[in-house]
Amino acid sequence: MIRPRSRGAHRWVAGLAVVLLVVLLRTPAAPAHAEPPNPPWPGLPRFGCDPDRVPHWYSGDGDYSCGSVAAWTGVAQTGIAGSVRSRQWARVPTSALAVNVIYGALPDPDSPTGSSFSSFPADGRAFFVSPRGSAQDYGWSPPIQVRTIAFGAIPVEATLQLSQTVDDDGELVGLHFSAVTNREPENARTRYDPAPLEGTLDVHLRDVKVDGVPVNLGRCAAPRARLQAVSDALYVSTEGGGDFANYDPGAGGFQAIMGGIFNGVVAIPPFGECRTTTGDDIAPLLTAMVSGEDNPVRIRVGSPSCFTPGPDYAYQLPPAPGQSDPVEANCLQWGGNQWLGDFNPRVYAIPPDLPLPDGPRP
Known about the structure:
The protein is mainly beta. 10% of the residues lie in helices and 37% in strands. Strand 7 and strand 8 (189-192) form a beta hairpin.
């Protein structure tokens, strides 16, 4: 016996249909022969057709179309980071990321025909779009300004920059995130599971002033810092317009189409030898200022709307080299910052700055 859908299920499907309609209207159908460049820009890694990245529903004849489920795009992100040792917070400037993401869909086990879906996983790799003047076109964060008091008495101003690591083949290793959206029509809601965000980064020191005096440094870095963050579990009602209309990306969850928030820590190892031109090693000072196992971090990500259409809209190109500024990376190309317009004005292409905590983390 075929079960009738609940009103909540109808609203969920309606909300999904609106979002897919927005995507389809903004990405016209491609000619069958059109093939995107791989990689899309020099400096980004190659990604092949890999159906094992997420669980995915296959058609009856076993056909699998990577073009329909995997794509390059771009997102804007902003954040804050803290140092437990120095008891200070710093802003991570708003910037663009190049993202390769693959989406999956699993059938509803209660569907007699298998034609409806209940679970939607997504797996992504995110890469910094390097500011102009960086060592490489991708993999370098914008400069992060830090001001603190070292050893309880010495004012220090520093400019940090993060870089992503490379694998054994010399290809850039992205930040990895995975997210799952689950439809719960029996409860008239959608569940967004906690989404992990992880990666390894090198922390570079660019400029330093100690007690107001500039310090000339050579190479100075803390290699292989470890980022581990996760979004909150979030339940969103499918009543009153559907979950896509009710979703709030500022509520702490994460959804791969509409963005969200990650909370976590960065474990920064001690700095290596950091010698000034006069021969002084200030690595102990920097380690006392920045390093630690549980430096808090909070990251907000916008909707994946920062891309350039390829020829005849055959595919999407992520932000090009140098397009670290979200406006330059075409994040506002659809007419404004509200990516879904009046349907859900809380969904931003460029997310607003996160508020700094009232006090430093102990």
